[in-house]
Specification:
alpha+beta; 16 strands; 31% helix; globular
Length: 289
């Protein structure tokens, strides 16, 4: 969780589902296992890290990381040189991408709590996707959210961001964590000891993902869409940080372009468009007559 780079040793190499001792074919995919790694494997809705593995003899691009039978496996492409069992190597994740993913993962926790605050404690997480570009959160609720409910949810998360609260993590027994009020994703299988993550003023969940050290790191949060997935399941897609700023800027630019097209001030756009629609409706009525 803390290290973005470290030195380690190659303990296993696989190619075409076979264990091999070394590999030197360029631009081919293979799987590499090391003694210890800074790479986060895909899990809990969070996509894996990507980055590089290097030493004096080789340069590898890490394109995906999975946890298989409790072993972290790096999917890599050899860009130069060769890699062998026992090699000492240097691993480095794409830190900028990791930071964006981390912000989005912490935001899903704040979103989960805000949904429960606004809609009620019947809300349960039913799935999520946390990427470096956006976050997606599925939850139980039997009707679409109103504009006012969405505004309340965003206001709660904005308050949590402004509060600049430190994130706290601890290892606890599964039973004690639930007794303390931690939220769990009940379709998930948990071990006897779990990681409990407290974010903001109220959110407490069982989670193995990466998270911000304090809520102010999120900077901005904006819900882009809310929709139905299936009966009783709703989905929210949202952006944070730089992506949220870009979303606001794009919307602002679009409003300016529309204002120019309609020769109206931004504040008068609604009235202008309503007037145009009424005029067109009147013309249609006259035409039909």
């Amino acid at each position: 969780y803390e290290d973005y780079e470290l030195s380690s040793k190659v303990i296993n190499i696989y190619h075409d589902n076979k264990k091999i001792k070394s590999f030197n074919k360029l631009n081919r995919e293979l799987l590499v296992v090391v003694e210890s790694t800074p790479f986060y494997p895909e899990g809990g809705g969070q996509i894996s890290d990507i980055g590089r593995i290097e030493n004096d003899s080789c340069s590898l691009l890490v394109t995906n990381v999975q946890k298989i039978n409790n072993v972290i496996v790096h999917q890599v492409i050899i860009e130069s040189g060769s890699i062998s069992m026992g090699d000492n190597i240097f691993l480095k994740i794409n830190s900028q991408r990791r930071n964006k993913i981390t912000i989005n993962h912490s935001s899903t926790h704040l979103l989960n709590q805000a949904l429960r605050d606004v809609l009620g404690n019947h809300v349960e997480q039913k799935g999520s996707l946390v990427t470096d570009k956006y976050l997606r959160f599925d939850f139980s609720h039997n009707k679409p959210l109103t504009i006012e409910e969405i505004r309340k949810i965003e206001a709660i998360i904005s308050f949590e961001i402004d509060s600049d609260r430190e994130t706290h993590q601890k290892i606890s027994s599964y039973k004690d964590a639930l007794k303390d009020g931690a939220l769990a994703f009940f379709d998930e299988k948990y071990s006897d000891d779990v990681r409990v993550v407290n974010i903001g003023t109220k959110s407490m969940e069982l989670c193995g993902g990466t998270h911000v050290s304090k809520t102010s790191s999120i900077r901005l949060f904006k819900i882009l869409s809310e929709s139905g997935v299936s009966t009783g399941i709703r989905r929210i897609e949202a952006v944070t940080g730089g992506e949220a700023y870009h979303s606001y800027q794009t919307l602002h630019d679009e409003m300016k372009n529309i204002s120019k097209l309609l020769n109206a001030k931004t504040a008068d756009l609604h009235q202008k468009i309503t007037s145009i629609k009424e005029s067109e409706n009147l013309k249609e009525i006259q035409f039909n007559k």
